[in-house]
Amino acid sequence: MRRKRKRSVWVKLWLQCRFLHWQYEQLMKELHSEDVSAFTNFMCMEPQAFHELLTRIAPRITKQDTNYRKALEPGLKVVITLRFLAASLKGSYITMT
Question: Distance from the CA of 68 to the CA of which of 34, 40, 46, 58 falls in 20 to 30 A?
Fold first, then answer.
């Protein structure tokens, strides 16, 4: 019979501190309010289209927080996915400015 290994850590320490160091909310606020062209370049879509997409799919991708970790925000998941798709369409991440 295989012995179960006791987990010492459920979530890495640097992931627990992500809310202290995470810049997602600040970046999105600044891009949306101050520089719409930079937002469009960063997200490869207009701010209105991004917010419409987010409001449509947020209920489907929202997860519950657990005792062990906080769930990622739906907006962050959409940003990560769009950046990944845009990078693959443009050939590489480096070409995106």
Answer: 58
What is the C-alpha to C-alpha distance for residues 78 and 84, in angstroms, rounded to an integer? 10
CA-to-CA distance for 25 and 19, rounded, in angstroms? 10
The CA distance from 6 to 65, in Å, is 23
| Sign, CA torsion 15/67/9/78 | negative
Q: How many domains does the chain have?
A: 1
Is residue 76 included in any domain, yes or no? yes
Whether residue 8 lies inside any domain: the answer is no
88 vs 75: CA distance, rounded Å: 20
- pLDDT digits 0-9 by tens, 51-96: 999 999 999 999 998 888 788 889 989 988 988 888 777 665 555 5
